[in-house]
Amino acid sequence: MDGFPFSETICAVATPIGEAGIGIVKISGPDALTSLRRIFRARTVADAFASHRLHLGWIVDPSTDQRLDEVLVSYMKAPRSYTGEDVVEINCHSGYAILDRILRLVLAQGVRLAEPGEFTRRAFMNGRLDLSQAEAVVELIRSRSEQELAIAGRQLRGELSETVHAWRRRLLNIEASLEAFLDFPEELEEEEGSSGHDAVSQELRDRLLPAVRELASRYDEQRVLREGLALVLAGKPNVGKSSLLNALVGRDRAIVTPIPGTTRDIIEDTFVIQGICVRVLDTAGVRSGADTIESCGIERTLRSVEEADLVIWLIDTSRPLSCDDDLIAAHVIRRPHLVILNKADLPQVIGRKDVFDRYPGVEHAVSLSVLRPDDIQQLRETIRTRFLRDAQLSACPAFIPNLRQKRALDEAASALERAARLIANGDFLELVAAEVRTARTALETIVGIGAPEDLLDEVFSKFCIGK
Ligand SMILES: Nc1nc2c(c(=O)[nH]1)N(C=O)[C@@H](CNc1ccc(C(=O)N[C@@H](CCC(=O)O)C(=O)O)cc1)CN2
Ligand SMILES: Nc1nc2c(ncn2[C@@H]2O[C@H](COP(=O)(O)OP(=O)(O)OP(=O)(O)O)[C@@H](O)[C@H]2O)c(=O)[nH]1
Ligand SMILES: [Mg+2]
Fold first, then answer.
1. What is the pLDDT of residue 446?
2. How many domains, in total, are found in the chain?
3. Do 382 and 243 reside in the same domain of the chain?
4. For 226, what's the count of Cα atoms within 13 Å in the CB-facing half-sphere?
C-alpha cells in the first residue's frame, strides 16, 4: 500500500461478478478522471466532466476504437466523495466478460487493483468515517437479520463513536487535572484540600468505570443478536436431523435417505426467527463402530456441540434407546439443550418417561414429527420463547459492541479500575495519570485514533474487494 496521501489510483468491481442488471467498476485516486477519459466517449460532445452528475456514453477500447458497452458514468470530485479522493464509477451491464474487459481496460491505464476494503480504508485515512463506522460498513453488508442490521446501522450513524468521544474528552480533562496537581501540589493541599482528588476519584470509579463496564458486558449478554444463535442438531444416525434442517430452512439443503450414516460432515445454513438470525448446523449421526470417514464426522459433531448456543438432540421414538444415546447425552446435557422426540407419527417404542428416567439431566423434551409442518411451526415458537426471549426483550435500546470493541472496553475498564484504586490509596499521581492514559488509548482504538497499521490491516482484511 502506498503512503498517505495516496498517489496511486485504485480500481475494482464493486458489485457481485456475474449476470445482473448493472455492474459497477469503481476508480478512486488522482488519476481516476484521466483514466476514464481515455476509455469513455460521451454521447454528447461536452468536454467538461461535471462533478456529481451522470454521463451517458460508451466504453471504448482505445487501441481498436471498438465500442464495448453503453454505460452511465459518474464523477465525484475530491473531496466530496466516499473516499475523499476523485472517484469515478462506471455503471455498465453486468456479466463476467464485460466486467472483466472493462476492469482490464482501466488497469491498462496505469491504475492498480484495489485490495479488499481499500476504498473504505482510504475513506478512513481521509477522515470520512472512523474505524467503528468502517467496521459498521462490513457488518451492514454481512447482516442477515433485522437485529444485525439495526446494530450495524446504529454503529454506522456514529452512535458508538459519540459515546467513545465523550468518554475520551472526560479522560482528557482528568489527565489535565492530574497534570495540574502534579505541577502545583501545594495549591492542591492548601486550597482544595483533598477535594480535587475526590472529584477525580469519583468521576473515575462511580461514573466512567460503570459506564464502560456496562457497554462491555452487553457483548456477552447479547452476542446472539449480533452473531446469531448457533443451533446444532445432534443425535444418532437416521433420527431425522437432516430432515429437520431442511424443514427449518424451508428448502432441500441436506440429503435425506432412510440409510443411517447419510450425513458425514457438518452442513450449515441460516434462518431467521423474529428478526434474529439462527445459524443451524446439521451433523453426522453419532454411533459406535463407524468407519474412518464417519468417525471424523462424529468427532466434528461432538466439537460443534461444545460450541453451540443451543443443541437440539433428536431421538427416534420408533426405536429403543441405546448406548449411542448415552454417549450423546453425556455431551449434550452440559450445554443449553432441547430434546426432540421425533417420528411421533410412527408406532412408539419409547416415550418421554424413558428419556427422563435414563437421562436425569434432560431439561425439556418435545414430541413431534419433523414431517409435519405444524409441528415445525410449533418448534420455532418453542425456540423463540425458550431461547430467544431474553435477547428480544432487551434488544431495542442498547447498542452491542463487537469482539474487538469489547476487548478495548475491557482493557479500558481494567485501567480505570487500577487508576481508581491508586488514587483511593493515595498513591503517586504519576501512576494514576499513566493508568488514565492507558484507558484513554484503549478507547481511542475503537474509533481508530492512533490505530497501528496492523490493527487497520486486521479490520480491513474482513472487507470484500470493491468496498
Ligand atoms: N454508487 C454507489 N452507491 C453507493 C456507494 C458508492 O460508493 N457508490 N456507497 C459506498 O459505500 C454507499 C453510499 N455511501 C456514501 C457515503 C458517502 C459518499 C460521499 O460522497 N461523501 C462525501 C459527501 C458528498 C456530498 O458532499 O454530498 C463526503 O463524505 O465528503 C458517497 C456514498 C452505498 N451506495
Ligand atoms: N415417519 C417418519 N420418518 C421420518 C421422520 N423424520 C425423518 N424421517 C425419515 O427418517 C429417515 C432418516 O432421516 P434423515 O433426516 O436423513 O436422518 P439423519 O438424522 O440426518 O440421519 P444421518 O444423516 O444418517 O445421521 C428418512 O427416511 C426420513 O424421511 C418422521 O418424523 N417420521
Ligand atoms: Mg443426516
1. 96
2. 3
3. yes
4. 21
Together in a domain, 295 and 426:
no
Q: Which CATH number covers residue 172?
A: 1.20.120.430
Which CATH number is 370's domain given?
A: 3.40.50.300
Q: For residue 164, what are the domain limits?
A: 141-224+402-448
Cell numbers of 71, please? 454505460
Q: Please say whether the beta carbons of 72 and 53 come within 8 A.
A: no
Grid coordinates in use for 192? 482544595
pTM for the full model?
A: 0.80
Are residue 325 and residue 422 in the same domain, yes or no?
Answer: no
* Ligand 3 centre distance from Cα of residue 242 (Å): 4
E strands in 174-284: 229-235, 267-273, 276-282
Among 238, 315, 325, 343, residue to substitute to test ligand 2 (most atoms within 8 Å of Cβ): 238
Q: How many CA atoms lie within 13 A of 366 on its CB side?
A: 16
Which ligand 2 atom lies nearest to the CA of residue 264? 23
In whole angstroms, give the CA distance from residue 301 to residue 264. Answer: 10
**At which of 394, 410, 435 does a domain end?**
394
Same domain, 118 and 161: no
Per-residue pLDDT tens over the stretch 212-256: 999 999 888 877 888 889 999 999 999 999 999 999 999 999 999
Which grid cell sits at 190?
492548601
Per DSSP, 11 falls in state E
| Alpha-carbon distances of 269 from 152, 210, 246, 272, 312, rounded to whole Å | 22, 38, 9, 11, 15
Atom of ligand 1 nearest to the CA of 24: 1
